[in-house]
Amino acid sequence: MEAMRYSLLAGGKRFRPVLALATCAALGEDPARLMPTAAAIELIHTYSLIHDDLPAMDDDDLRRGKPTCHRAYGEDTAILAGDALFAEAMRLVCERQDGGGAVQVAVLRELSWATGVGGMVGGQFLDLRDAGLRSADALRLVHTLKTGRLIAASVHVALVLAAPSEEIADRYRRFALELGVLFQIVDDILDVAGSEVVMGKAVGADARLGKATYVSFHGLARARELAAETHGRARALLADVPGSTGDLLDLADHVYTRQS
Amino acid sequence: MEAMRYSLLAGGKRFRPVLALATCAALGEDPARLMPTAAAIELIHTYSLIHDDLPAMDDDDLRRGKPTCHRAYGEDTAILAGDALFAEAMRLVCERQDGGGAVQVAVLRELSWATGVGGMVGGQFLDLRDAGLRSADALRLVHTLKTGRLIAASVHVALVLAAPSEEIADRYRRFALELGVLFQIVDDILDVAGSEVVMGKAVGADARLGKATYVSFHGLARARELAAETHGRARALLADVPGSTGDLLDLADHVYTRQS
Question: Per residue in A222-232, pLDDT tens?
């Protein structure tokens, strides 16, 4: 539990839970109602970081300016801390998320789908096998699975709770997709152009590891254009939906302009 | 997916799903109705074996007579295969288990509890830290968490679906506890007295690793007595409950007399 807390409470932007809560608010639903699920998503995100950092995976020593979980607690504890965070995330939704069994199951279905073979884990596998090197489309698929699905799920769980019309839900889903892509493009740009001090981790890792990125495929200038275009599309999708989308648009702006 | 199938379909006794289905039948419910959850439990069990076998954990080369997942596919793939099996297990219950949202959530709550800090993962952590060496009670706690909880959950999920009276449910829960303990005592005996050919894995590993076991604490003769007593208590608990408990009693006998 100490290792779980160490990684979970190491800081981090809380981007996914904030996204879930902001979507909830935009849809006119009290964000407090979605808090257990929003927290569960952060537990899942933390589990994925712990496992991705392992020596057998990306072999990272530093995360959020502190030693990675396995550097602090050993590899065995880090593997188990990740496993347990996943289990406790599911338990949190089962025990704390309100809305009844149908809502809870829909949330858990979304989270298990986003984290399984057709989501986060599948994407991490493809990334480890350098599938993204093949083409720009392949790279986009890797990122859609590895990071996009859980970001999208953060929006989808709010749709489960608020249950808007299908037309409105579709707008939000497309917004979530664009936001996931934007997040990754900016990530790739920051790995080249970011500050190690602000980021709290080593920069230039992608290039050293020969990883495919938006920058390696398109160059830094074009990657910046792609980020601007994606950001524009994300904003446009929410331009005329009803409700108070202000926080959600601010979040999209933050993803676009973030320095870490 | 290949690595997931490799470990999932490597054989194995299917003890946990058979236990779930036999409990379901004993309670007068069609076992076919519980099949998605029974399968999910086997996915979870397989995930735990893959992670436990990793070099950073028990470092095993052989499982069910074949190279362990990480020996066959590499450590990174093995970690991810375990992660994905867990996610897909949850998804299976969300998408396939019938009985409605309340049943699905109760099943998922049981599974997430049995696999988290207060169950399987917590037990594996204590085991890695040799907590069982402290006392016979501590050893029993380690095993209750590490293997007992998921065995108990296999019975509990059938109780969720069949919903018998609290008095009957209590009998089954106590039966499940005894069965979990019996399973572990026999496991420890087989590690000393079993056949490597029949087991499909190296024997004597516990002693070589200096692990606490029922045999190391009590000696082989007393461990065999404990197994007989536990087996007797398990059988007695189901002696006068209504329903067709024949398969379930056979299963308890099999756990007691198994050679692998």
Answer: 999 999 999 99
Which residue type occupies B218?
H
Chain position carrying tokens 């392992």: A54
Nearest to B16 by CA among B120, B139, B172, B147: B147
pLDDT one-digit tens code per residue, A1-30: 999 999 999 988 899 999 999 999 999 999
Q: Within 10 A of A235 (CB to CB), how many other CB atoms are there?
A: 17
- Which amino acid makes up residue A81? A
Residue B51, chain A, CB below 8 Å: the answer is: yes
What sign results for the dihedral spanned by CA atoms A168, A174, A178, A180? positive
The neighbour count for residue B257, using CB atoms within 10 Å, is: 10
Among the listed residues B142, B154, B180, B4, the one whose alpha carbon sits nearest the alpha carbon of residue B86 = B4
Strand partners, A66: A63
User: Which residues, 6+ apart, have CB-to-CB distance to B166 below 8 Å?
Assistant: none
Q: Which fold has domain A2-257?
A: Farnesyl Diphosphate Synthase (1.10.600)
The residues that bridge with A63 in the sheet, in sequence order, are A66
Domain ranges of chain B: 2-257
Smallest Cα–Cα separation from B10: which of B84, B86, B72?
B72
Reported pTM: 0.94
- Tell me chain B's radius of gyration from C-alpha atoms: 18
Coil, strand or helix at B66: strand
Residue in the block written with tokens 């207060």: B118
Whole-number CA gyration radius for chain A: 18
**Looking at the complex, does the CB of residue A213 fall below 8 Å from at least one CB of chain B?**
no
For the stretch A61-108, pLDDT in tens is 999 889 999 999 999 999 999 999 999 999 999 999 999 999 999 999
B interface mutation test: which of A2, A37, A76 has the most B CBs within 10 A? A76
Give the 3-state secondary structure of A11-22: CCCCHHHHHHHH
Q: Centre a 10 Å sphere on the Cβ of residue A125 and count the other Cβ atoms it contains.
A: 22
* B112 inside 8 A of chain A by CB: yes
Closest A-chain CA to B47: A83
